[in-house]
Amino acid sequence: MAAITPRQRAGWATANFVVIALALIPVLWLVSLSFKTPTAVLDPSFIPSQWTWGNYSGILTSSQFLRPLANSIGIGIISTLIAVILASMAAYAVARLRFPGKSVLIGMALLIAMFPLIALVTPLFTIERALGLFNTWPGLIIPYVAFGLPLGIYTLSAFFREIPWELEKAAKVDGASPFQAFVKVIAPLAAPGMVTTAILVFLACWNDFLLAISFTSTISSRTAPAAMQYFSGGSVFTIPTGPIAAAAVVITIPIIIFVLFFQRRIVAGLTSGAVKG
Amino acid sequence: MAEIVLEHITKRFPDGSLAVNDFNLEIADGEFVILVGPSGCGKSTTLNMIAGLEDITSGELRIGGQVVNTKSPKDRDIAMVFQSYALYPHMTVRENMGFALKLAKTPQATINQKVEEAARILDLEQLLDRRPANLSGGQRQRVAMGRAIVRDPAAFLMDEPLSNLDAKLRVQTRTEVSRLQKRLGTTMVYVTHDQTEALTLGDRVAVMRTGVLQQAASPKELYDRPVNLFVAGFIGSPAMNFLAGTLEDGMLRTTLGDIRLSDRMRREVERSGTGRDVIVGLRPENFEDAALVPRTTARTGSPSMPPSTSTSPWAPTCSSTSRTGASAA
Asked: What is the arithmetic mean of pLDDT over B313-320?
């Protein structure tokens, strides 16, 4: 490869800057808003003239935000766990076994992934009301698992296909039952794939607004993105811009930590050395 | 320690193709048997059926006197070495070798002792805490062997265990495998497509072609008395020469000259009761320069042929019938 000329370097720097700025400016604006006092919200300057922690202390002491935040974490983690466990078993079958109805299963999974969610909200709402799931944790967990599964099955079956089949044969000859072979040999090797899938499913649950706002009515099960909608200002006529911005920043932080923490595991190629090459 | 008996073993894949057809072989306790043949001849499929990794379509497989057709691999007490080694990349060498014992709920102290013993035999002691990714090809191969011997199984199955090694290491490891088998005295079934490996390692070699066992015999027997044209052409490097010839009055007339048949050969040819046209197989090493051979041993300008072994006349019809009718010798 030829050496990079200063001109090329400048070109790349500009391109990178534009892309990053486009992505980050709204986020930074949000951070800026979250530190502004209620009266300064309409102040167009980027750096707040007067810094305040008031928005944060306000939302972090209010059960109107803390309870939904706990709901978000709980519902997100439970949905992710269930979805990844079910998806890894299904993906394993898709990748390894030949069984009747396999193509139907893959087709259905794709169909669910493609289906416009908003078209399902009204029927699901009726069903949840009838089953008594409305405004409960399971009322959100079940649809989250259902919509997370197709994604999980697709990403995980790609990972399972990468794992040499001979490893599994070796485990069987070594005396492992199919379940032991899966748990002790295949699953550890597919761990990077499972973590990737878990992150994707968790993000989908954590960021969901549509189902959260539709299937909840009180803070007992409302998640954080939905709860922000119900923040109230100082009076009926004030828009709670500051607290909403602060809440948005607070719910973004776990995602950043999550991705940074698991990034290395996703990248690490655990399978190297399994076979020749 | 156990004998392995394959009786009329047949494997038909779901798509209808016949991979192994009516395979019969008895492998004695402690015997080292090689399955050899060109690729796609069903030798690996046969090995996988013995291991329990492939279902047997029909026939009976017995290990140590017990019918194991429907038993899962873990209940067959066999160990297998794979061509790709199939080491568990997330485990250290020690964990790899002890995995089977751990699954069998062996006490940790016993596992350690057995793993260390196997490591000593295979010269792996320095590598016990490394992972497969940090080993060379030869070391990985030895770990794969170690994983098999740690278990002290009834039989070893090896699926082309040396084909991923470079030529020099392959020869070296070949002698190690042979020594190991003699030392342990465990029944071993070894699959290879390399006839040098087959002839140097095995007590007995089973030659397969398109799913059919052609001949199972000692390397010397295979070399000297192949039962059909395929075995004759497959075994030996450089390969045997084939010439068309005719039989007339106890003389074999070929394009190379006339050859007088020994009494033993003539009897065999007459007993097979076939026509006058035959195919003559000549091993390259039996050609000699007439100028260098004393007149008494050189016979009438024809290629030198010790009467005992090196020529085997066939009638063309004979070879095709013996191929389909091949059975365990």
From this structure: 36
User: Which single residue is written with the structure tokens 């265990």?
Assistant: B161
ipTM: 0.75
Q: Is the Cβ–Cβ distance between B213 and B8 less than 8 Å?
A: no
Measured between alpha carbons, how far is B13 from A178 in angstroms, rounded to an integer?
22
Cross-chain residue pair A172–B52, CB shorter than 8 Å:
yes
Q: Which pLDDT score is estimated for B295?
A: 62
Contact A174 B103 (CB under 8 A): yes
Q: How many CB pairs (< 8 A) connect A and B?
A: 87
Report if pTM > 0.80. Answer: no
Please give the structure tokens belonging to residue A122.
Answer: 């009204």
- Tokens (6 digits) for B52: 């329990």
pLDDT digits (tens, 9 = 90+) for A124-140: 999 999 999 999 999 99
Testing the interface with A: which of B103, B105, B169, B170 to mutate, by most A Cβ within 10 A? B103
pLDDT for the residue B325: 32
Under an 8 A CB cutoff, do A274 and B73 touch? no
Tell me how far CA of residue A42 lies from CA of A47, A52, A53, A249, B252, in angstroms: 12, 15, 18, 19, 112
Task: Among B48, B51, B137, select the one facing A276 at the smallest CB separation.
Answer: B137
The residue behind tokens 């709901």 is: A71
What's the whole-number average pLDDT of chain A?
85
Q: What one-character DSSP code corresponds to residue A133?
A: -
CA distance A202 to chain B (A): 26
- The chain-wide mean pLDDT, for chain B, equals 83
- For Cα atoms A206, A207, A210, give the angle at the middle one, nearest 5 degrees: 115
